[in-house]
User: Fold this.
Amino acid sequence: MSELPEFILDRVFEAPREMVWRAWTDPDLLSRWYGPGVETIIHEFDLKPGGVWLNEMKWGENSMLSKVVFKEVTPFERLVWHHHSSTDSDWNTVSNPKMPDWPRILLTTVSFEDEGSNSRVRLTWVPFEATDVEIACFTGAVANMGKGWESGFTIMDEIFVEMLA
Assistant:
């Protein structure tokens, strides 16, 4: 496949850009909204190019581990990372146990812009070094990918109301 599919989600938040940036980069805030409906545990968060974010999502007796490697960190403007969908207990990349054909790595770009007194965020996901089967799986899932992100963004809205009070 020559043309890679993209998932793009645009969202305007009623909060200043610096506050929205903080929600994406402060582990205490990030763990509140990332992975809505589950307990999010951030084991490591080193916000710099080459730094890692080791994340665990827990629900009941189950958990899923994932690893992010930051590629670009431009404060208040842009985050770029390789998102390893799943890892084993030693943080090595593995296939997603719930979706074995899901791309093992996604290139994630999050951009932040002022929109008056609000902030516009654009999230983009693109399969990275993916097989044709992984690309097909990603393409088939694009239409429903926004649901989880939107649930997290709704929690983020609540966080901003608290912070602005």
Summary: The chain has a mean pLDDT of 94. The domain at 7-164 is CATH 3.30.530.20 (Alpha-D-Glucose-1,6-Bisphosphate; Chain A, domain 4). The first strand starts at residue 7 and ends at 13.
